[in-house]
TrEMBL record:
Taxonomic superkingdom: Bacteria
Stored Gene3D superfamilies: Nucleotide cyclase
Name assigned to this protein: Class 3 adenylate cyclase
The Guanylate cyclase domain, residue ranges: 46-178
Length: 235
């Protein structure tokens, strides 16, 4: 069978085939889903994207070796914090990592995770970089985006080379929030903010709201909340 016929047949079958869906209890792996129209549904899931900022300029100015070291360190720290916070890593994409949180405390867990990633960048990664390279003037920075919504997981790709696509507002908004270029390092939607426990919403001394409300101009001026706070990793 030729390539064109493969493409035509797959497109026709995918658009024609009825979906088989089931409620999700855990975050699925690709092998839990069929390549046909098979989906796991979550009434609500929280999606987190952690994105390393300025990576193109980093490669141009620091060279590939140092840039690769920063990539590796950032993704390692983010991944370890995500897992420790109860999230499931669903993909690495260049200089960013995506994770899904489910369960009763999912949104607060994701928000605290974002604050911990901010702490790790400022208190682990940047000091280690400066300690290794005397005279270093480069500062690693990141943006974390978080949203919560109904989400569906489906398997996509070709046989032997496939992954899960996450369909729902949370996946799209969480990714788009990482494009905001302001001093705040962690961003959440209003729906996520309204679901935060008090310990994920208030901090500091004196105790105050850690999240500042903004109009998200890139998304029709809907409310979004950004934070400059961090949450220390203690063990």
């Amino acid at each position: 069978m030729g390539l064109l016929k493969d493409l035509q047949d797959h497109a026709a079958q995918t658009f024609r085939e009825q979906w088989a869906t089931r409620a999700g209890q855990v975050v699925p792996s690709p092998t839990d889903l069929k390549l046909s129209n098979d989906a796991v549904e979550f009434d609500r899931a929280t999606v987190l994207y952690a994105d390393l900022t300025g990576s193109t300029n980093m490669v141009d100015t620091l060279g590939w070796q140092k840039a690769a070291e920063i990539y590796k360190t950032f993704l390692f720290c983010s991944g370890k914090i995500i897992r420790d916070s109860g999230g499931v890593i669903t993909s690495y994409d260049g200089d960013r990592v995506m994770a899904v949180f489910i369960g009763n405390t999912q949104t607060s867990d994701a928000a605290i995770c974002g604050l911990k990633i901010n702490w790790a960048v400022q208190n682990v990664i940047n000091p280690a970089l400066s300690n290794q390279y005397s005279g270093n003037t480069f500062t690693v920075s990141q943006v974390v985006g978080i949203d919560t919504s109904p989400v569906r997981a489906a398997r996509t790709g070709v046989r032997g080379d496939n992954d899960i696509v996450w369909v729902g507002r949370a996946a799209n908004y969480a990714a788009k929030l990482t494009e905001i270029k302001l001093p705040q390092r962690t961003w959440i939607t209003e729906d996520a903010y309204n679901r935060l426990r008090d310990d994920a919403k208030y901090g500091g001394n004196p105790r105050q709201d850690m999240w500042k409300k903004f109009s998200w101009t890139q998304q029709n001026d809907i409310p979004a909340y950004g934070s400059t706070y961090w949450w220390a990793v203690s063990n």
